[in-house]
Design goal:
By secondary structure, the chain is mainly α. The protein has a domain of 206 residues: MFS general substrate transporter like domains (Growth Hormone, Chain: A), CATH 1.20.1250.20. It contains 14 helices and 2 strands, in the order H-H-H-H-H-H-E-H-H-H-H-H-H-H-H-E. The radius of gyration is 22 Å and the shape is globular.
Length: 323
């Protein structure tokens, strides 16, 4: 996912970068859903081994297709002094205006880190933004994994039937499709503030789940809206991280943010288990989870207030290629 986000960000027009990136990220949950449907059909007809064979063959074929068709990042080639003819050939697939270009210049700049992507991500210019991205993504997965793993149980203990608890909980992950709309808003307005607003509203919605758990007619829209907000914000973090870092550290920055977020997924499951062990009420459990959304919002506001201080770098690390 980190490599895919980086590559698509390298080729996207600046004005539509967040929209296209979040649209691509929607393929991940859609593919997961398709995989589940295929497995449900294949196992009765061809046995469980057929699922593993398909799961092994598909990435091999996909890898061959990428090897043959996926062009190298133009910004990467310029930054590493690759032959002008090779760069021109790649850009020529986008615009004929580069046919007569004799050279290319990457106008973005970054701290001198000796081609060390992690060094750039943790450099003085980017460290505050990096830590805030990690915190926001971490807390986002605390919410998602806590609710995916525990919401059916919590709602059942609150008095809903097992069937109703399962169906209501299934509404929460459906919200990821809202990431496309969020991406469009990120392209038009301040991306940090757009996602921070989603997390803030999600915190309110999460608290509302605990309050409305006894009334199904109110609980259903609250769960759905909360799911849209949380999943949208979390999916949009990929585009936010990709646009924050310059070419030298973009892949590393996105990958480390996603890696740190996974620890939040583990923490989310243990968090609810501990709250239940301590006999928190349903409202108390969801209020605690809502705090994670508020922390994500605060982290992005801090990131907005602490842009990278690199001479010549455009806001949020967005550079342009000129010839």
């Amino acid at each position: 996912m980190a490599n895919a986000v980086t590559m698509i960000d390298e080729f996207c027009p600046t004005g539509r970068r967040a929209t296209v990136t979040t649209l691509m990220c929607c393929g991940f949950p859609l593919g997961a859903a398709l995989g589940g449907l295929l497995a449900a059909w294949m196992i009765p007809h061809a046995g469980w081994r057929s699922v593993l064979m398909l799961g092994g063959a598909t990435p091999i074929l996909h890898g061959v297709l990428l090897w043959l068709k996926l062009p190298e990042s133009v910004r990467f080639m310029v930054a590493n002094g690759k032959p002008v003819a090779r760069i021109r050939a790649t850009l020529g697939r986008i615009s004929e205006d580069v046919i007569h270009a004799r050279g290319f210049v990457l106008t973005e700049s970054a701290p001198a880190t000796g081609d060390n992507g992690l060094g750039l991500v943790l450099s003085r210019s980017y460290i505050v933004g990096t830590l805030m991205l990690w915190l926001a993504a971490f807390m986002g997965l605390v919410i998602i994994y806590a609710l995916i793993n525990w919401m059916p149980i919590l709602l059942r203990d609150a008095g809903l039937s097992p069937k109703s608890a399962t169906l209501v909980s299934a509404l929460f992950p459906l919200g990821g499709v809202g990431a496309v709309l969020c991406g469009a808003l990120m392209d038009r307005f301040n991306a940090n503030l757009v996602i921070a607003t989603c997390y803030a509203l999600a915190a309110v919605g999460l608290f509302g789940i605990g309050v409305t758990a006894g009334t199904v007619s109110l609980l259903i829209p609250v769960v759905l809206v909360s799911g849209v907000l949380v999943n949208t914000a979390q999916a949009s973090m990929n585009a936010l991280a990709a646009t924050f870092y310059p070419t030298e550290g973009r892949g590393t920055g996105v990958a480390w943010m996603l890696g740190m977020a996974r620890f939040g997924g583990v923490a989310g499951s243990f968090l609810v288990a501990e709250l239940v062990r301590r006999h928190f009420t349903l409202v108390g459990v969801f209020a605690t989870i809502a705090i994670a959304g508020a922390l994500s919002c605060i982290a992005l506001l801090v990131k907005q207030a602490s842009p990278p201080h690199v001479f010549g770098t455009q806001p949020d690390g967005v550079g342009s290629l000129s010839h």
